[in-house]
Amino acid sequence: MRRFPRTLRFWTALFMACWWSVLHVAPAGAGLAPSRLSGHSTISSARDADLLIVQRALEHKMVAQKLRDYGVSPQEAQLRVAALPDEDLHTLASASKGLPSGGDGLGVLVTVLIIILLVVVILKLMNKDIIVR
Hints:
The protein has 133 residues and is mostly helical. It has helices at residues 6-25, 46-58, 61-69, 74-82, 86-96, 105-125.
């Protein structure tokens, strides 16, 4: 204790007592972040739901690559899908909805067939010829 003078010990003890009392009195402010209300979504009709499903199918790499191979840009495809009648849009959405998420060969086969169907429908809407040789 001879190393620290008496005044330094007093002020250090006073500082530490004040510091600890401030930390004890001022608790940390924490809380939960607000979330969305349940039941609220941007989908207001069946057409919007079908459109969202088809647009998600168009975002797949294989579909986008096939469309590029046929000379169709992803933006053109999105515009054409948005212009589809409700019946055709529902047909495309129901064909791509509820597929198994993978693992077996049947799911891959169904996915490839749906992608081919989607590409053919979009190409027909754009008045492009499909020639299989």
